[in-house]
Design a protein that fits this description.
Shape: globular
Strand order of the largest sheet: 4-5-8-6-7
Largest sheet: 5 strands, antiparallel
Strand content: 15-25%
Number of helices: 10
CATH topology of the largest domain: Uridine Diphospho-n-acetylenolpyruvylglucosamine Reductase, domain 3
Helix content: 25-40%
CATH architecture of the largest domain: 2-Layer Sandwich
Number of domains: 2
Length: 310
């Protein structure tokens, strides 16, 4: 029996979680809709219940809280550039946000939605007809990875552009669930499993992103894609160095989770790059080849080091 379709608009985070618990296994949270609705169009997302979070004031606003800048998860990507605190202390976040999709998409997409966007793969993000013809993969109830022909792991890729920028600057997130809220490092929510790419519970809601203030970050950002507008990333590279000399690299587009490398400005740069390339499990499930994307990791990181350490 087909479950009745529902579109629910909660007035608070707690009410949204109540709605979610009432529809376990058959709902999706909806914010800007630029990821969820595309996947529904392709038949990759068929939940009969949508819970629209866009009216929740608790998920909006940008303000300083103690030693952090709190950015609400519903803040629109295109509008981040208008905030003085972000533009002065975290310009790489603006650069990353403005690299996402097209101007029309950025006017609807949210920061939280981009951080949580579904992993993508050339063999998965297709129409239902196409996927049925080529064969179902591990991510859509099949028994094999079409890209690798293996049966044990899905290598669909993290394609968020804001996540690596935030991770490189030691971002934390606030997550609210039925049992309360918690603050965790952003990189800790990613599992590395392409089928279930995040370890958040089904009902959890990401409410805010926190960036540490007064760290004096120097940053550099690069994104590889076929077209500068609209295209999902084939490699996103973010590097941040703070005033103490701490260095952090975060990559997306070359693994089911962020590739993160930490060090200092005195560390051997060749070794840091080698560690980043080694951590990348890119496979041939992208418009660019695995070999080329791994080569571009070295190119981008060398450019960043030349800029930041010269």
């Amino acid at each position: 029996m087909t479950k009745e379709k529902q579109y629910l608009i909660p007035t608070s985070v707690n009410e949204a979680i109540v709605f979610a618990r009432q529809n376990l296994g058959s709902f999706r949270y909806l914010a800007g809709g630029t990821d969820v609705m595309v996947n529904r169009h392709q038949g990759n997302e068929e939940s009969p219940c949508l819970i629209d979070l866009s009216k929740l004031s608790e998920l909006k606003g940008i303000k300083k809280e103690e030693h952090f800048l709190r950015i609400g998860a519903l803040e629109i990507l295109e509008e981040l550039k208008l905030n003085k605190n972000i533009s002065e202390e975290f310009p790489m976040l603006i650069e990353a946000a403005l690299s996402v999709g097209s101007p029309l998409i950025r006017k609807a997409a949210t920061l939280g939605g981009n951080v949580l966007c579904e992993n993508r793969c050339l063999f998965y993000n297709q129409s239902e007809w196409w996927r049925e013809a080529v064969g179902y993969c591990l991510k859509c109830d099949g028994d094999i990875c079409i890209a690798t022909q293996g049966k044990n792991a899905c290598f669909s890729e993290l394609v968020s552009d804001t996540a690596p920028a935030l991770i490189a600057m030691d971002a934390e997130i606030e997550v609210v669930d039925i049992d309360g809220n918690q603050r965790i490092k952003l990189e800790d929510i990613y599992t590395g499993d392409g089928v279930t790419p995040r370890n958040l519970s089904e009902t959890a809601i990401l409410t805010a992103i926190f960036l540490p203030l007064n760290r004096g970050f120097k940053t550099d950002f690069h994104k590889l894609r076929e077209r500068e507008s609209l295209e999902f990333t084939s490699l996103t590279s973010a590097v941040a160095i703070d005033s103490t000399g701490k260095l952090k690299i975060a990559l997306a587009g070359v693994d089911p989770k962020p590739v993160v490398v930490e060090g200092t400005i005195t560390d051997d740069k060749t070794a840091l790059i080698k560690q980043a390339v080694k951590g990348s499990r890119a496979v041939d499930n992208d418009m660019y080849s695995r070999k080329y994307r791994r080569e571009m990791i070295s190119v981008y990181l060398n450019r960043s080091f030349d800029k930041l350490l010269s």
